[in-house]
Amino acid sequence: MISSGVLRRSVRLLRFSIRACERLLVAALPVVFALACFGCAGWNVPPDAKQMKNPVALNTVTLDSARSLYRSDCAKCHGISGDGKKPPDSMYSYRTKPTNFTNAKLVDAMSDGEIFWKITNGRKPMPSFKIRLTDEQRWELVDLIRVFAHPPSAPARK
Ligand code: HEC
Hints:
Strand content: under 5%
Helix content: 55-70%
Largest sheet: none
Radius of gyration: 26 Å
Number of domains: 2
Number of helices: 7
Low-confidence stretches: none
Bound molecules: heme C
Shape: elongated
């Protein structure tokens, strides 16, 4: 027979342990959320990267070069005309929608340096182009994204 005193003590110990576990859980939750959100909180572009100026002049030569890079490296996700609609033959199958560069409001909200940094570093499922493309090629693509947002045929920006 277990004496009632031992039983009572065991129950108290058990209650204490449950309360301790609860407290630990409550304390740990924000940490868990913070860690989980670290990856989902956005691009976290460093402020000095945003300040970088585009050294590549926008002209027909640089734009043609960007167009051909775009066709081979970006169109399969961002769409041939930059509208974010993948072409029918694209293998793209992720849930995150590739950005629509014809959305002028969205593109205007980013500095050249910010777009450059994003192309350089990528963000899942978008790959990094740091090694695949040269700095100059990535800056040319920044110009092309601006042209997608403001095609020469469109009415002038207000
Ligand atoms: C595998 C598909 C894929 C490829 C290839 C790809 N992207 Fe992306 N890109 C994405 C996705 C998806 C996003 C949105 C990511 C997000 O919002 O988390 C994105 C976002 C971006 C952004 C950021 C826009 C914003 O809203 O902040 C830029 C700039 C960009 N891509 C440029 C390019 C360029 C230039 C290329 C080619 C050199 C390229 N991407 C290739 C999938 C891709």
